[in-house]
Amino acid sequence: xxxxxxxxxxxxxxxxxxxxxxxxxxxxxxxxxxxxxxxxxxxxxxxxxxxxxxxxxxxxxxxxxxxxxxxxxxxxxxxxxxxxxxxxxxxxxxxxxxxxxxxxxxxxxxxxxxxxxxxxxxxxxxxxxxxxxxxxxxxxxxxxxxxxxxxxxxxxxxxxxxxxxxxxxxxxxxxxxxxxxxxxxxxxxxxxxxxxxxxxxxxxxxxxxxxxxxxxxxxxxxxxxxxxxxxxxxxxxxxxxxxxxxxxxxxxxxxxxxxxxxxxxxxxxxxxxxxxxxxxxxxxxxxxxxxxxxxxxxxxxxxxxxxxxxxxxxxx
Length: 316
Known about the structure:
Strand content: under 5%
Largest sheet: none
Oligomer: single chain
């Protein structure tokens, strides 16, 4: 990274402030320094972009520099150039775990460009991931969709939020529009299939699981969820095939093996189920539910001492 001498001198003077104070406390002092040294604000903005977007692994401390430099640039740039600086500050704040500052920076960007759908969408994603006010989260998803109604990603993410809140009919509307816009998006098809299962539309769910798997046949969770549905509707042989594929593609997933063990038990293949339970417990030895189910199976097999050992481990 090559920069002019004035910018490098500025960074050297800024460094003690970043190391010794709260980050926001540096900004007023640094802005005054920018004015005194006549540092080009656009060069500061370019520097923050380089720090954030670099493909190289960088010291986390550099994200602090990027955060402060971005906000300094935002203070010094003209109105029409401030937005990008606030977005850089948001990204840097995210990397350093300053969640409150993330939200503040995104809100600043939205204040400057309220008609930018990506800003509303990113804020909604951020709020949702941090468990913030779901009403506010929904407002920003809706605003993003209002501004860009043909964006399948916006509708998909909002539909998933609606499903989590039990608003299935509304989620379905967004899913159907999203699939019309992106019919070859396997992840979208998969989540729509999950939604259809919750909506008790079994045949439709089968169809969309199959579409997702046809597009990406080696995604373990696609096979696991499809197998779960097949087992539920008593298509046990097909369910076994898809659980086997899920485990083939993700052999260290205890949940997939546990589901498979339950199916094998249902099929009367108790010894095979026992082998899966052993592997499940190796992968997740502290899960009481896994041990309890294994103990019940051992009792059915007449292995009472082994069952008792599992029950003890479950309790203690």
